[in-house]
Automatic annotation (TrEMBL), chains A, B:
<dbReference type="InterPro" id="IPR014710">
    <property type="entry name" value="RmlC-like_jellyroll"/>
</dbReference>
<feature type="domain" description="Cyclic nucleotide-binding">
    <location>
        <begin position="13"/>
        <end position="116"/>
    </location>
</feature>
<protein>
    <submittedName>
        <fullName>Crp/Fnr family transcriptional regulator</fullName>
    </submittedName>
</protein>
<dbReference type="InterPro" id="IPR018490">
    <property type="entry name" value="cNMP-bd_dom_sf"/>
</dbReference>
<dbReference type="InterPro" id="IPR000595">
    <property type="entry name" value="cNMP-bd_dom"/>
</dbReference>
<dbReference type="Pfam" id="PF00027">
    <property type="entry name" value="cNMP_binding"/>
</dbReference>
Length: 191, 191
């Protein structure tokens, strides 16, 4: 029941669904309990689902040819995550998603999301605005990568994820910022 | 009439609108003829519109404290552009948009887009998928900024905008890639 109320509250911030519509929608989500370190999406996988985080924290990342990890996104409670490029274009995953901590998720298939969007106009409205916000966040991160120094990007990251240091080990924060652990320690100590 | 058919064809790639629905929608767009160098959005402006490019080419950019220009997006025919952060959150512009060449645009207000999305479910579907694609493109550019060298980013840019060299002067291509003009000349000559 708790997962239902978390999703319901999340949707209600954007869209107006009747109780009946919400229950119909909710029936399309599948609960997943995952352990720290478990993979949700692996590079090369067929990607058919997106994931709503109920508890815990995930990361979307890739490892480059020099075995360096780049983190695209941390996914905290009430965030959505997937390899959206692969999901939307029905191609193979080019990134990985795994659990930084034990996590409870709700998964929704691509086909069910499209069906729900067709059937309930307010669901389509919800997903449009969810992606609008994601688009703006991705552009903001891009601008920040182009222009800001590591210190500014670190401050922005803490603004976006205030519970970051409780949830995410330091080496992953460094991988998100694209700096070494030594640089991160320096930023951390000068706050 | 030509602008109507360009927009109609663009929408038809994603959504199914009746002729009557399309004409109703089209009546909400306003044509704009702009000259090379004219500003569409200026940092600090209130942003109430987004723009569909019929012809010509625009750039979305900002100038940092060291007077260095960063280019977020080139907008070619059938692309949409605005300061989406400002538009969606109804805050002041943090970027600029101007014309690289003479350009014909169709503008749509924020209020009209929301009204049309409410009134016609397929319009909401269209805008959801437009943003989905924009989101994936922004994430791809971010990954590329994190990981790829200038040469790879240059090749990706040419794939995305095959007519780039006809439409955009070299110093703007360099500003998009975040490299000097000398580096760009080297990339250009080694293709």
């Amino acid at each position: 029941m708790q997962s239902q109320s978390i999703l319901k509250e999340h949707l209600a911030k954007t869209a107006s669904l009747t109780q009946e519509e919400f229950e119909y929608l909710f029936a399309h989500f599948k609960p997943l309990s995952l352990k720290k370190g478990q993979m949700v999406i692996r590079e090369g996988d067929k990607v058919d689902h997106e994931y709503f985080v109920l508890s815990g924290c995930l990361k979307a990342f890739f490892i480059n040819d020099e075995v360096k990890m780049h983190i695209l996104q941390f996914a905290m409670p009430t965030w959505w995550t997937s390899d959206y490029h692969a999901l939307y274009s029905q191609t193979r995953a080019t990134i990985n998603v795994d659990c930084i901590s034990d996590a409870e998720l709700l998964s929704l298939s691509n086909a069910d999301r499209e069906k729900l969007c067709r059937e309930i106009h307010q669901v389509e409205y919800f997903f449009r605005w969810r992606t609008n916000k994601g688009y703006v966040a991705a552009q903001k991160r891009l601008l920040s990568f182009m222009n800001d120094d590591a210190k500014t990007r670190y401050e922005e990251l803490l603004q976006m994820y205030p519970q970051l240091h409780q949830l995410v080990p330091k080496h992953l924060i460094a991988a998100y910022l694209g700096v070494s652990r030594e640089t991160l320690s320096r930023l951390y100590s000068t706050r």
